[in-house]
Amino acid sequence: RAHSLWKRPAIAVYTRRSLAVDLTALPLRPAERMAVAADIAPEYSLLEVPAPAAGSAISAAGFKPSFKPLGLSELPLATGQLVAIDAEFIAVSEEVTRRGKRGANVVVKPARLALARVSCVRGQGPHHGEAFVDSYIAQAEPVVDYLTRFSGLRPGDLDPSVSPHHITTMKAAYLKLRQLVDAGCVFVGHGLKKDFEMINMRVPPEQVLDTVELFWAPGKRRISLRFLAFHMCEIHMSNRLHDTHDSIEDARTALQIYDKYVELRAQGQAVLDAAIDELYRVGREMSWEVPDAPDRR
Fold first, then answer.
1. Residue pLDDT, tens place only, 5-25
2. Number of neighbouring beta carbons within 10 Å of residue 27
């Protein structure tokens, strides 16, 4: 019996002991990569947007997706190709607490979170900065909290009968990400370690470029996406101005921050180190608070 705290496995393999062989000499990667997986169903393909399901709130004719799927000219995906990514989560179980000895509430069991939206943005090429995946995921369990302040999601966003978004299944979202990982794409984002843990997907460290780590000075605090965007790129994130999140904007902003990192690194390590020192100096002076945009009323 699996431990109660284990996550749902993606793959379970059973083998008879009598069939056991030494597999250490076998290659783990295919000798050749498929140029186009033409036989993949539209639901799992990175090449096309499946038509809205029957009974959904949007018609096939009126559906305008928030992303542009990959074109044939963008395949096969090259090893090292940059993909900016961000994910949002909702709670499918409530936090369990009890009163501690000193009267404070102690968390006995944290709320269980589930992937609710994932967005991928092109990191290079003629469509640099344009989303090619933006999946809202229908939930198999009742949602107890949409965590709107952190996820940007609201009641109805994940319900195919009323949602105006591209609704898909957890399996379809997972398989799209799996294709990107297996192709050797390099993911750019902010706080990706936690995101991939929540998605229950292992990504090799060499395929992750986390802006949390790129602009972190050892022994000091890690810096929020919003403050990095403000100081390094002079960007006022519109979703943060309304105390919410949008995964496409977050992924795109992380990509712009990474582009700035590449620009500074190209000028030499001394220039990059000086920029990080200045980032921390300004952050302390501003108490790490981002001022309102100049034109905000």
1. 555 556 777 776 665 555 555
2. 6
